[in-house]
Amino acid sequence: MKSIDVVAALIEREGKLLLARRDASSDQAGLWEFPGGKVEAGESQPAALARELHEEMGIAATVEDFLATSELQQSSRLIRLHGWRVSGFAGTITLQCHSEIRWVSPADVPSFDLAPADIPLIEAYLAKFVS
């Protein structure tokens, strides 16, 4: 079975987290997620996340703490989603593969229609950073 490593950013700003809605052309269209993308061969997870955030949103991110990994079985592949805390970024967010974004209180994130692999990431974030 093929496995794919993907990274996701839990981007913080003023006590809120950034959620992005997958556009109509995406797999899992319409679901909310933490932005990110695939890790390329020979690339570290933080480097992949910084690259993906630059490509997808036009920002230069400060990748900080590893949070958690979730696994999702999809037909003939296993997706391993690695969540990272991003404490800040430079630039203005421009959407390339998302239809909208929202800044959300961490406690409210589970009320959104999240992509399944993102649910364990918000659970880990809440357990570690929200008391």
TrEMBL record:
<dbReference type="InterPro" id="IPR020476">
    <property type="entry name" value="Nudix_hydrolase"/>
</dbReference>
<dbReference type="GO" id="GO:0006281">
    <property type="term" value="P:DNA repair"/>
</dbReference>
<protein>
    <submittedName>
        <fullName>Pyrimidine (Deoxy)nucleoside triphosphate diphosphatase</fullName>
    </submittedName>
</protein>
<dbReference type="GO" id="GO:0044716">
    <property type="term" value="F:8-oxo-GDP phosphatase activity"/>
</dbReference>
<dbReference type="GO" id="GO:0008413">
    <property type="term" value="F:8-oxo-7,8-dihydroguanosine triphosphate pyrophosphatase activity"/>
</dbReference>
<dbReference type="InterPro" id="IPR000086">
    <property type="entry name" value="NUDIX_hydrolase_dom"/>
</dbReference>
<keyword id="KW-0378">Hydrolase</keyword>
<feature type="domain" description="Nudix hydrolase">
    <location>
        <begin position="2"/>
        <end position="127"/>
    </location>
</feature>
<dbReference type="Pfam" id="PF00293">
    <property type="entry name" value="NUDIX"/>
</dbReference>
<dbReference type="InterPro" id="IPR047127">
    <property type="entry name" value="MutT-like"/>
</dbReference>
<comment type="similarity">
    <text>Belongs to the Nudix hydrolase family.</text>
</comment>
<dbReference type="InterPro" id="IPR015797">
    <property type="entry name" value="NUDIX_hydrolase-like_dom_sf"/>
</dbReference>
<keyword id="KW-0460">Magnesium</keyword>
<dbReference type="GO" id="GO:0044715">
    <property type="term" value="F:8-oxo-dGDP phosphatase activity"/>
</dbReference>
<dbReference type="GO" id="GO:0035539">
    <property type="term" value="F:8-oxo-7,8-dihydrodeoxyguanosine triphosphate pyrophosphatase activity"/>
</dbReference>
<dbReference type="InterPro" id="IPR020084">
    <property type="entry name" value="NUDIX_hydrolase_CS"/>
</dbReference>
